[in-house]
Design a protein that fits this description.
The protein is of the alpha/beta class. It folds into two domains: about 260 residues, Ribonuclease Z/Hydroxyacylglutathione hydrolase-like (Metallo-beta-lactamase, Chain A, 4-Layer Sandwich), CATH 3.60.15.10; about 55 residues, no CATH class. It is about 25% helix and about 30% strand. The radius of gyration is 24 Å and the shape is globular. Bound molecules: zinc ion. Zinc ion (ZN) binds next to loops. The site of zinc ion has 4 residues, from loops.
Length: about 375
């Protein structure tokens, strides 16, 4: 997937086949660390992949999106770090129940902890599960949540909306950090001459500190280049930056086609670079989609027209269509600027039958 896509810092890998339980791995190249979106079937991910995960975003706790959490715990519980996990209201109690399902009498002081955040409509409630003590649930408190951002690191921001899937489900947008790009033509138009001041501006930009102090720039005045103090450094940057939206990923799964959901999704995901979108049913099974609050190909075609992503990756097709995925791809009718990405039905080998194992006692 990553070969074709214009991401600067992110390496997205969809780790499930079309019919498998979804899981998206996003490597943040400059950090060598990653985040995971949904936690379906993850047993095929290497331990070192799971150990590089800083945060997990679970859209909702239906089994096909959350059962991989146990595998994640199995691989990382003895690593000395805190892994954050975000989910809809109630996810704290569900993590508590999962962790309480095991005996932890052999814990060590360096074991990992989970910091779990429940995204409520206007608050985020947090719970710490310290591994050193056997993962008890310790409420950390609630903080007000305005806007959409729920998490960020130095290279990306994760935003969320709570949608309705008969239970609350998170729809997510991951956006790369804006890049300090200067448009040479706009710079010349403004009569500015490159110099050390651009390096200073760049350093301030990445520290999030464009404002705070004036910046001395170089300006062409007739034949001469003169120094000039600029007070409003943000406005100056706006005037000379290359106008380009940072690349982004939309992740939408298991929501119904209610007007309210569509309005939220339009607000959050219009114009994303890559839209990863559940498509559980073929058009003829629209009734099944409506009953279970999933999407069918007609819905995805409509959303592609509305949201205009650069690339569209349909995923999470109902397992009832095993071996019928060509039918799915035939039903997509996308605007010409939306490029369709395809998944194989399965990524991992078929599970084995007893007869396929080597017999016991074989030489
Ligand atoms: Zn679901």
């Amino acid at each position: 997937m990553k070969r074709h896509l214009p991401f600067r810092y992110l390496e997205p890998t969809f780790c499930a086949g079309l019919l498998d339980d979804p899981v998206l791995h996003l490597n943040v190249r400059p950090l060598g660390r990653a985040i995971l979106i949904d936690c379906g079937q993850i047993h095929h991910l290497a331990k070192r992949v799971l150990k590089s995960i800083d945060a997990v975003f679970v859209t909702h706790a239906h089994m096909d999106h959350f059962m991989g959490f146990d595998t994640l715990v199995r691989h990382i519980h003895v690593s000395p770090r805190t892994v954050e996990l975000f989910g809809p209201p109630g996810i704290g109690r569900k993590v508590e129940a999962k962790l309480a399902g095991y005996d932890w009498n052999l814990t060590e002081s360096y074991w990992c902890s989970f910091l779990v955040h429940e995204v409520h409509p206007e608050e985020i409630h947090s719970f710490l599960f310290p591994g050193a003590e056997g993962f008890p649930c310790r409420p950390v408190g609630a903080r007000p949540w305005r806007g959409r951002e729920i998490w960020h690191n130095g290279f990306l921001t994760v935003e969320a909306e709570l949608c309705d899937h008969r239970i609350p489900a998170l729809v997510l947008r991951i956006t790369e950090r804006p890049t300090f790009w200067i448009d040479g033509a706009r710079l010349a138009e403004a009569g500015l001459v490159p110099g050390e001041w651009l390096r200073e501006m760049k350093s301030r930009f990445y520290r999030g500190a464009l404002e705070g102090a004036p910046l001395t720039v170089l300006r062409q005045r007739g034949e001469r280049v003169v120094k000039e103090e600029v007070e409003d450094v943000s406005a100056l940057f706006e005037a000379i930056r290359r106008v380009q939206e940072p690349a982004s990923i939309g992740y939408m799964t298991d929501i119904g086609m209610s007007e309210e959901n569509i309005a939220k999704v339009q607000e959050l995901l219009t114009g994303v670079t890559l839209l990863i979108c559940e498509c559980s049913f073929l058009a003829e099974d629209v009734a099944k989609a409506r009953i279970s609050h999933h999407l069918c190909t007609t819905d995805v075609n409509m959303l592609a027209r509305e949201l205009r992503p650069g690339w569209l990756l349909p995923m999470h097709l109902s397992k009832s269509y095993n071996a019928k995925s060509p039918l799915l791809y035939r039903e997509f009718a996308l605007p010409p600027e939306v490029r369709l990405l395809r998944l194989p039905e399965h990524l991992t080998p078929c599970p084995l039958l007893p007869a396929e194992f080597p017999p016991l006692g074989a030489e």
